């Protein structure tokens, strides 16, 4: 197949960028012709570029014609869009439709439903945007504390819901979990076009080399939605807890405590080494995670996960099989769960074995390649059927 990948990078490299890189490599390795067109938010570096980005947020004629040009030059069988915000804009889906080219959108977050992209405000999960629309968020300035920025995002969401962009212009949607599919379906996205395909990693690991210790591991951005305060308070309840922390973020200072070994930002190889040398990964998130790459990386490295019982995490972590679940945002519940893990090392070791098995069953490169190819072929066939009618 001839595949065109479109993506808008954020200024800070993140999980979506890793997914794009991994999928491109996967498809190329399978012999597909893959063309990648990436634009970056680093381009937004002055007053005029910021103004142009704002004006094109709802519909960018520049992006519309750029994608039409790409389609005419490349003549792809299918187009796969990851992030379109803010520079591509939803206009690119109209460009694909105008040239009768099937297009898939991976919904990595909830940006098409809520200006926060997280379904979260003031440290609490909120589904107001799903139930009542996005306009409640404008005077709350939920997007970077900006009234104008939040207004433009609410306008983008409302306009494209009114126009039926997601129902009419996109061939297929990829979501990462069944939880996400339920949320998007509830919000009006066509359920028959939504396909669940998780993320993947390609890691070889020998469980017999696993090192048992009594140290917990946290890997991720040190920010409110990741449950840093919950983790801090849980550790304060028990001075025997030792936590290795990998990552940076605005709440890094919260973990200035002798029980935390803060390593800062690390290479992926170093992260995997940490995963192979720890007993359990802690994911105390208080928001609706998409599909954390950290989780599938942990499973691939034979590492069980202690996770909040919230959103997709409850779906991804099978309690006392591949990890343990605790009440989201509750330090006491987390502390009790961490203590249970320390008291039951053999059970945790078995959960690590189960986690690796789960990875091999669901999250390998080969499994993902087959799923991607099937989604592409379905989109191509659907587009062909539309043209025939």
Q: Could you explain how this protein is built, in words?
A:
This protein has 389 residues and is α/β, with parallel strands linked by helices. It has helices at 15-29, 47-55, 61-74, 91-98, 128-132, 147-163, 165-168, 178-186, 228-236, 268-276, 293-300, 311-316, 331-343, 345-362, 365-388, and strands at residues 2-9, 33-40, 78-81, 103-106, 120-121, 124-125, 172-175, 194-196, 216-219, 243-246, 260-264, 280-283, 305-308, 323-326. Strand 5 (120-121) and strand 6 form a beta hairpin. The longest helix has 24 residues, at 365-388. The mean pLDDT is 93.
Number of domains: 2
Q: Strand order, biggest sheet? A: 2-1-3-4-7-8
What is the CATH homologous superfamily assignment of the largest domain? Answer: Glycogen Phosphorylase B
Q: State the CATH architecture of the largest domain.
A: 3-Layer(aba) Sandwich
CATH class placement of the largest domain: Alpha Beta
Which helices and strands appear, and what pairs or packs with what?
Blueprint: E1 2-9, H1 15-29, E2 33-40, H2 47-55, H3 61-74, E3 78-81, H4 91-98, E4 103-106, E5 120-121, E6 124-125, H5 128-132, H6 147-163, H7 165-168, E7 172-175, H8 178-186, E8 194-196, E9 216-219, H9 228-236, E10 243-246, E11 260-264, H10 268-276, E12 280-283, H11 293-300, E13 305-308, H12 311-316, E14 323-326, H13 331-343, H14 345-362, H15 365-388
Parallel strand pairs: 1-2, 1-3, 3-4, 4-7, 7-8, 9-10, 9-12, 10-11, 12-13, 13-14
Antiparallel strand pairs: 5-6
Helix pairs in contact: 3-4, 9-13, 11-14
